[in-house]
Amino acid sequence: MPIAATRVEAATHANILVDARTGEVLEAMNADALTYPASLTKMMTLYLTFEALHSGRLSWDQRLVISKNANDKEPYKFAIGAGNTISVREAVLGMVVLSANDAATAVAETLAGSESAFGVVMTVKAHKLGMNDTVFTNPSGLPDPSQVTTATDMARLGLALIRDYPEEYKLFASRGMTFRGMKFRGHNPFLVRYPGADGIKTGYTKAAGHNIVTSATNGERRLVGVVLGAASNDARNTEIINLFDRHMAPVSVSASQAPVRAQIEGQQP
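Structure (tokenized):
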């Protein structure tokens, strides 16, 4: 799989909000501009982990060895030391709640032998899901100028997780976890601040800015929203909440008055 030649010079501020049932794009800004995913990358690592669990290549209680390479990842990690093990269940929750880079690396090395080989697998899967502008090179989202995505592609990935792995998707609602007697809180304030929120992932690097992909439902409608390249956590959180607030409540508009809107094809759950 060739690596994209285009590199991002600076984080692009972008967003998109999509109706999960219809694929209708309700609002978007710079949605197809290339930028860096940061830890949103772990959404694909988790998608492939769920796929491996369903196919029998992994089991929830299987032990994953933390290599020296995995243990060297910063900043968020279990930090249990090279040569020790975590379960697949711990790895999944670690990625969801803590954005644990050592957990993501352990999964990648187990499934593909190396981070770079797993990056190829991630990119192939991304393109199969219609994420045609995305290239993954590592499982964690740690900085790599060749690892790029768009807000549209991240929305597609969020929709795919909800559609393809609805039971596993429920884990994204986890606000914390206990790991070997220690309690940890998650990094996603949208889960706490927005009624009906149940996922998905935040991310930050200096190059990427402050990112989020998230979903919420009011019982009748589910929306998936993305903000990339925000200037701060507060700016990101305010922007994503405002996006949802503008569109979550049902609006009665006749077909003749409704604006023409784009579709994300093939993403209906």
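The radius of gyration is 18 Å. The chain is about 35% helix and 20% strand.
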